[in-house]
Structures are given as structure tokens and as C-alpha cells.
Write a structure and sequence with these properties.
There is one protein chain. Helices cover 59% and strands 0% of the residues. It is elongated. By secondary structure, the protein is mostly helical. It has 2 domains: 106 residues, no CATH class; 128 residues, no CATH class.
Amino acid sequence: MLIPESEIPKTSKDKLTQSILQIDKDRCAKFREFLRRTDRLAGKSYSPRRWGIAFRMLRAKLGDKSSQIDEILDWYISWWKTKDQFPTINDPRQFYTQWDDIVQAKDKDQRYGFSHTDFTKDGERTFEKAAELHWPKDSVKQLRPFIETSLANYKDFRTKLEEVEGDLERFAKWFKTSVLSPYPTRFIGIWVEETHRMISKWNDWSGKLNPFVFRVESKRFQEMGVRWARKYTETRGAKLWADLMEELGYEVGEK
């Protein structure tokens, strides 16, 4: 559905063009690149002015909340492939007319509770392999943010280990080089596969992947950490691991 002519302000062409800001043009360019990458640009008449009108009208509609436009646009571009019953947008004018539906879809998606939804190359590589598996209860819809959040948490943990000094420095360095993979996609890829095995035969599973996200504080990883720490030193392993968690600021015991 395109913008009805009755909704387009009655003004001169020059004045209308002047009201289109650079930010509107940037959004048009971003949307055009999105259509090009998804092979949906062919046959479309690209008009920065006409497309810009849609984003200008959306700014006027949202007023003080117009900063949401980039947030919603980036989310749509990143996740549209994984959503069933997702608004199909082939033109910025449709982005304007279906704005409320898109916002509702994003709000519903974020209720899964993932902290990272930015689209990354590492996430794409991991997702492509994981998506080949059968994810029960339609949980494949959550797979991208599940992977992205796990990757972000894993990278953050490795970075923190590099900053450890003092009595725990030697153990932290050993854990980072002997236990953790230098390639985040490898470690998280295995984590995702193990998660799939856990839920694939769990009939009473809620259908939410968020509890299985890689988190250092999770019981699953804490048990793994203690086992490896005991390989480092049988007698002091558990205490050494607890000291490392305290040094890094993790609250052990969270699920």
C-alpha cells in the first residue's frame, strides 16, 4: 500500500524537496542497498525525492520519537528473513504505511530478552550452519539474536581474561589459551549445537532460547569452568575459579 495522494502535503515541489533532510536521503540510500542485496531492486523506480517524502512524513508523524526510525529500520533490515508473518516492505512508502505493524513485530521479537541484535559477519557464519538443523517449536526465529548475544558475551569474556593481572594472571592466560577457542564462531558454534541436542528431545521445553545463551554466569558454563580449573590444579581448582569470577566481576550462581 502506497501513501495516498490525499496524505501528501499540498505544497510546491521546491518547498517539499527542501523539507527532505540529509538524514532522509541517508535512510533512502540504506533502504536501496537493502533491496539491492536481497535482489528486490530490479524493476523499481528509485526516486530520492519520492522515497524521501515517506521518511519526512514519518518524522513528522513521530515528532520527538523520530529517532526510532533508524533503530526500527536497522532491525528490519537485519532480521526480516527469519520472521514469519513479517511485513514485506519493498518501498519506503510502505515503510511509512506499515510502521505500526513493523514496530509491533519488533516489540514482540524483543520480548525474547536478547541483549544483542546487531547483525555481524561472525553471527551470519554461525547462523548459516546452525539453521540447517531442525529447531523445535519454531525456535529458529530466535536463532540469530541467540547467536549474536552468545558471541558478544564470549568475546567480552575473552577480553576480560586478557586484562587479569597479579596472582590470577597465569591461570587466566592458561584458561584463555587452553580452553577457549581464539575463534568465537568455533566455540559458540559448538555451544549452539549442544543447545540443539538439549532441546530437540525436550517435549516440555518452553520454546525460548534465551535461557541457553552463552553467559559466563550460567550454571552450564560455571560447571564447565570448574572442571577445567581442576585440570589446571586438582586441589585448588574450584577455589581458583571462584576467585577468577570475583576478579572479573561475574555473579556466580545465576541461571
